[in-house]
């Protein structure tokens, strides 16, 4: 009888320890890389791994628009996602989570663009329609963007960085973004 009670007590203590260990680790705030003083941490929720910064800040990078394909050789015009692959210089301006849960370098920043922004970026509505219904699944364009809102959160058990674009402009400097590997997979 005593041995059974001792086993139950041991099991109870192990479970209790694991719960407290997880809770203390989950609420531990993230530590960020050095970043531009133009960004200010305005909101943090360590329990949900979410952090939001306000700018404004301007960076350069490669805009990558992934389109849904109506067929293997024809894009439907529907956008799956839009991301910016920041240059190395731009990454140094941004807060990457370097310690804590879900650490990750900033490989991509997910954004949203309105129809008028896409039309303007790609030299008019007609040109954007031609590109978004063409044969390519990915549309790439070097850009300079200014955003006022930058966030680090967790999606699908992976660190994700997002921004709200204030302005975006195409640039022609081919040295803007060196693209070594582009992972376009989802969750």
What would your notes on this structure say?
There is one protein chain. The model is unreliable at 175-181 (pLDDT under 50). The termini are far apart. α3 (115-121) crosses α4 (125-132). The protein is built from four helices and eight strands. The chain has one domain (30-170). The radius of gyration is 22 Å and the shape is flat. By secondary structure, it is an alpha+beta fold.
H/I helix tally: 4
What fraction of residues sit in β-strands? 35-45%
The mean pLDDT is 82
Q: Residue share in helices? A: 10-25%
- What Rg, in angstroms, do the CA atoms define? 22 Å
| Number of domain units | 1
Structural class: alpha+beta
Helix-strand pattern, N to C? HEEEEHEEHHEE
Measure the end-to-end span.
50 Å
How would a textbook summarize the main sheet?
6 strands, antiparallel
Number of strands: 8
Provide the low-confidence segments as ranges: 175-181
The general outline is flat
């Amino acid at each position: 009888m005593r041995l059974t009670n001792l086993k139950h007590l041991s099991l109870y203590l192990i479970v209790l320890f694991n719960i407290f260990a997880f809770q203390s680790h989950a609420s531990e705030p993230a530590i960020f890389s050095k970043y531009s003083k133009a960004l200010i941490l305005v909101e943090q929720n360590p329990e949900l791994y979410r952090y939001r910064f306000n700018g404004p800040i301007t960076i350069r990078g490669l805009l990558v628009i992934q389109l849904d394909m109506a067929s293997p050789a024809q894009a439907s015009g529907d956008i799956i996602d839009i991301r910016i692959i920041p240059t190395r210089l731009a990454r140094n301006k941004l807060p990457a989570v370097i310690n804590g849960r879900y650490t990750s370098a900033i490989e991509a920043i997910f954004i949203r663009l309105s129809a008028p922004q896409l039309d303007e970026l790609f030299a008019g509505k007609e040109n954007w329609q031609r590109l978004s219904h063409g044969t390519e699944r990915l549309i790439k364009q070097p850009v300079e963007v200014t955003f006022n809102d930058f966030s680090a959160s967790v999606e699908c058990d992976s660190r994700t960085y997002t921004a709200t674009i204030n302005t975006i402009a195409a640039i022609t400097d081919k040295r803007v973004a060196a693209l070594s590997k582009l992972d376009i997979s989802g969750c």
